[in-house]
Amino acid sequence: MNAEEFSFVAEQLLSDLPESFRLALENVVIIAEDFPAIEIMHAMNLQSSFELLGLYEGRPVTEREAMPSGTLPDIIHLYRKPILAMCAETGENIEHCIRHVLIHEIGHHFGYSDAEMEVIEFPVQTGTI
Fold first, then answer.
1. Is the pLDDT of residue 117 over 70?
2. Strand pairing partners for 76?
């Protein structure tokens, strides 16, 4: 899947989310890129550019008091090649994989940690049910 098709699918999946989520994401930009930037890889101590599927850059809504004027939008990065590799490895379809990563990064926007999202996504595996 080329970059243009990937971005189109991501935009469609975003538009399919409930309106309440979309409204809460008005100041969030979704960017599809092939891989994370070298600076991000170094900052996160990644050994491979395939280790990161997506990244939320911004300030979670739970940490905001008010939006100061001139504030840049938050960014959700979706890394196309690692997501495509995950699809090939798991056998899941591309829409499922993109949606999974997109929802995960949106969770960070709402202030959820990775551990909290894992409990939400996989309650039986984490022993919460």
1. yes
2. 30, 56
Identify the CATH number of the domain in which residue 74 sits.
3.30.2010.20
Q: Which long-range contacts (CB under 8 A, 24 or more apart) does 99-106 make?
A: 99/13, 101/53, 101/54, 102/10, 102/13, 102/14, 102/30, 102/54, 102/76, 102/78, 104/53, 104/54, 105/54, 105/55, 105/56, 105/76, 105/77, 105/78, 106/17, 106/21, 106/25, 106/28, 106/56, 106/76
Q: Which two tokens stand for residue 32?
A: 């599809």
Backbone angles phi, psi at 70, to 5 degrees: 80, 5
The whole-model pTM stands at: 0.80
Q: Is residue 128 part of a domain?
A: no
Does 129 map to a domain?
no
Q: Is the pLDDT of residue 120 over 70?
A: no
